[in-house]
Design a protein that fits this description.
The protein is α+β, with helices and mostly antiparallel strands. It is built from ten helices and twelve strands. The strands form three sheets. The chain has a five-stranded antiparallel beta sheet. Strand 4 and strand 5 form a beta hairpin. The two termini are about 55 Å apart.
Length: about 375
């Protein structure tokens, strides 16, 4: 790499930024620029934060000395890539994880600027980013894998144990014993199916591919149906209060997704809350623009300091089971409909969830 020649002013290469009223220090990512001689002529404030170097330390230095980067195998990156002496057809380097002296990790990409096609490199523009965001993503993925492994282990162990026992000793069990084992296997299979469905929903939400198939939805009827299901499963009928403030505007939404939202919110209120669970259905404010549903209980509620984390992955209101993914999925479904959801404290002191779905239009007209 060349290391001779006078430094060039940053103003020589930043007329585009200047015309936009921008300064290199305004950029959110780290930016370093080397001239045709390989000397650093720009090193913005973000680059300083990311690398731990002061711009005054590196301006005017040869790039190899200013940023002595190595790959994860200890090879000197500038010597390997040779931007100034390599093939004239190259236009840059894709982003990769590199190391500075002391082991600081930096995400680095480069762009080769040539004044004419196949000509020498006139400017070398280097983008620098910290690894914190990537590390958070990796931790999130690791937590998701650990959660899935933990949640799958128990039902699969049960399914394997009961089926192996039945196959080996079928004649030794009474019909009632066989029925009990098969019912347990069936319930555990449903549990695995629900977890897989949650994972698919998370994947679609994160990638923006959650599909909404809009149909007419009677929100009041859907709420009453979910309450009836809980009563049928053994909950006291007087534990639920349903209030419908009509008339409600026509609502076009995905009925399966609406059921998923209602099912999750009511399940949370029943499992984690106490006292009466109140479900209120009303027209959104302003009227005729959507439908709002509020689910509240009379339990201990959600601590104020936890309110901001309720809709994040793996948040659990208590230690009474669950993957901690349900409310994250609920928020994704509501927002995919163009709606909003919020959490607060109910008048009785418990948790209060309120979501609003817009009236919208049917899928075939969208």
């Amino acid at each position: 790499m060349p290391d001779t020649g006078p430094p060039v002013s940053a103003a020589d290469w930043t007329p585009g930024l200047t015309a936009l009223g921008l300064d290199p220090d305004d950029l959110p990512d780290g930016l370093a620029v080397a001239d045709e001689h390989g000397r650093v002529i720009c090193f913005n404030a973000a680059a300083g934060r990311i690398t731990g170097l002061r711009p005054s330390q590196v301006l005017g230095l040869p790039l190899e000395r200013a940023l002595p980067l190595e790959d994860l195998e200890g090879r000197r990156w500038w010597a390997c890539t040779d931007p100034y002496g390599g093939l004239a057809t190259r236009v840059g380097q894709p982003e990769r994880n590199l190391l500075l002296p002391g082991g600081r990790e930096v995400l680095v990409s480069a762009r080769y600027i040539r004044r004419r096609r196949l000509g020498p490199v006139h400017r070398l523009v280097i983008s620098l980013r910290g690894t914190e965001a990537r590390r958070r993503t990796e931790r999130s993925h690791a937590e998701l894998i650990a959660t899935v492994a933990h949640e799958l282990r128990s039902p699969l162990t049960s399914v394997k144990g009961f089926t192996a026992t039945l196959l080996a000793k079928w004649e030794r069990f009474t019909d009632d014993q066989k029925r009990l084992m098969l019912e347990t296997v069936d319930a555990d299979a449903d549990r695995v199916t629900r977890l897989i469905a949650e994972l698919l929903d998370i994947s679609r939400i994160d990638s923006g591919r959650l599909e909404i198939h809009r149909q007419p939805v009677d929100m009041a009827a859907a709420v009453r149906r979910h309450v009836a299901a809980h009563v049928g499963a053994g909950e006291p009928e007087d534990r639920f209060t349903v209030r419908v403030a009509g008339p409600l505007p026509a609502l076009w939404a995905d009925p399966d997704k609406v059921d998923q939202v209602l099912g999750n919110l009511l399940e949370n209120a029943v499992r984690h809350g106490e006292g009466t669970v109140t479900i209120e259905v009303s027209a959104a404010d302003p009227p005729n623009e959507g439908t709002s549903v509020t689910v509240s209980d009379e339990g201990p509620g959600i601590p104020e300091e936890s309110m901001s984390r309720v809709f994040t992955r793996f948040w659990r209101g208590s230690k009474r089971g669950g993957t901690g993914l349900g409310l994250y999925i609920v928020k994704g479904i509501v927002e995919a409909h163009g709606g909003t959801i919020e959490v607060g404290r109910a008048p009785g002191g418990g948790a209060r969830f309120r979501f609003t779905l817009p009236v919208a239009v049917p899928s075939f007209l969208a």
